[in-house]
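Sanity check

After download, print the first record. It should look like this:
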Amino acid sequence: MSTRRSALIGRSMPISAQKTCATTQGGSKKSHYRPLPKEFRHHGFTFRQISREGDAAIYEQRWTGCAEPSVCYEIIRVRYRDGFHIGGRFVEPAEIYPNSEAWGVDGFTLTDKEAAFAKLRELA
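Expected structure tokens:
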């Protein structure tokens, strides 16, 4: 019996073709981060993610205090925060929305949807 053939005995495929267990090595570090929510409310506005390409996303922004709100689009660079301990508990690593100090660098507000998608492509 040949060496190759003996490797098939008791198996449905050669050893070299069998699946192996996945490891964290070689995996994306970003897979360990809690993703940004698809929808959230903040300061009287509702934000809904309408597109994402890699680390860039568009959120549709609507003011909740108006029957017919005007719509704006926030285009953001998704940032990442490492996990940390506070008050005896662990806060998991997470994707984060840019804060107001980062606006104009990591976040942009536009009123035109087409322009928002152009900015998204620029950031992606």
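If your output differs, re-run the checksum step. Summary of this record's structure: Helices lie at 3-8, 113-123.
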